[in-house]
Amino acid sequence: MRKIVILLGISGLLLGGAALAQQGANRGAAAIDPAKLPAQNGKVLANDPLPYWAFAVATHPWAPQDPTEKRRLKGSKKVFTTAEVNDRWNVPDWFPASHPKMPTIVEHGRKPEVSACAFCHLPNGQGKPENSSVAGLPANYIVQQVADMRSGARKSSTNRMNSIKSMVKIAEHSNDAEVKIAADYFSKLKYKKWIRVVETHMVPKTDIDRRNMLIVVPGPKEPIGKRIIETPEDEHAIDSRGSMIGFVAYVPKGSVARGKKLVESGAGGFPCAACHGPQFHGNGDVPPLAGRSPSQLTRQLYDFKTGARNGPGAAMMKPQVEKMTADQRIDIVAYLSSLNP
Ligand code: HEC
Ligand code: HEC
What we know:
Bound molecules: heme C
Structural class: alpha+beta
Largest sheet: 3 strands, mixed
Number of helices: 13
Number of strands: 9
Strand order of the largest sheet: 3-9-8
Shape: globular
Order of helices and strands: HEEHHHHHHEEEEEEHEHHHHH
Number of domains: 2
Distance between the termini: 59 Å
CATH class of the largest domain: Mainly Alpha
CATH architecture of the largest domain: Orthogonal Bundle
Mean pLDDT: 90
Radius of gyration: 20 Å
């Protein structure tokens, strides 16, 4: 009996050791079950386990919210209940003057499968770490990405993130005409600075909420280790789908300067600016990267590396990430997200 326990312990360590080491001191090994390590789409990468903080999945249930609670946000005269902010067919628009009128597909979606795009990407397209900022992406790029998700060419490296599962379902059920309308809308919006990058050794203790997002919880600070901790500046505002106050991203000390060097040299591939534009503001249909969420960027670089993201455009990215280590990726996204969009 003891032998079996020890054997299980060792294989658990082998399987989960690297992942566990990344989980941060205070999250507790008990919450992680190596048997439930993510199903991988694409290659399993040696020495580069799935970064849990970018592919965030709740490790325990959360108490239900009170649907009748009335919510208010600074700067808006509107009041919405919790049920209303969670209505995927009627997106709460706290700041209607801050963006053009949303097309129907963006504001209301199409029942029963195509949830309103702004429900996750927000009315101004600024997006959140668990999804993606779509404001200011080239329209052709948006259309292509949805098409890739629909065909299965673009997957996530893990099947466990509900936010991504919902996006894939939307891609599968949406039609070309509505995606084109949404793409025209989002591509014309200007992506504004939304992430405050802070270099630090110590970070607040965080937990992963019901929405695949890291939130600060009570407890002593902990070492950042090899992680990026991206969390709302104002959790109430983000939980209410506010679109004015964004995120703080804690990154390791020195990562921004190291990242700058890496993107300039290409980290084993080509200098990133050669394709993404000199200020990383995009170039033709190649997407902009400056100021985007480091969690979002990390998932994409990881997905290109595992091969889970494998649409036609991914062919250009594969050689860029092939030799990119986990540490280099952190530095690179820390730098890119610190830039002005
Ligand atoms: C339930 C939440 C949700 C809704 C609603 C939603 N998306 Fe998404 N979307 C996501 C997530 C999550 C991702 C990030 C996927 C990843 O990181 O692999 C994403 C990614 C994208 C991307 C890729 C962006 C990039 O930088 O590569 C595009 C384009 C996109 N969505 C378009 C849409 C459109 C158009 C709609 C409406 C028809 C929509 N989304 C509705 C959750 C959502
Ligand atoms: C040879 C051209 C080329 C080079 C060099 C290049 N990229 Fe890309 N990159 C692309 C293309 C094309 C896409 C769109 C891929 C697709 O359609 O799936 C892309 C997509 C991305 C994305 C996903 C963006 C999103 O919104 O989902 C990230 C992140 C990225 N590149 C980062 C980098 C970094 C970091 C470097 C340098 C280490 C780099 N790229 C170098 C062409 C390039």
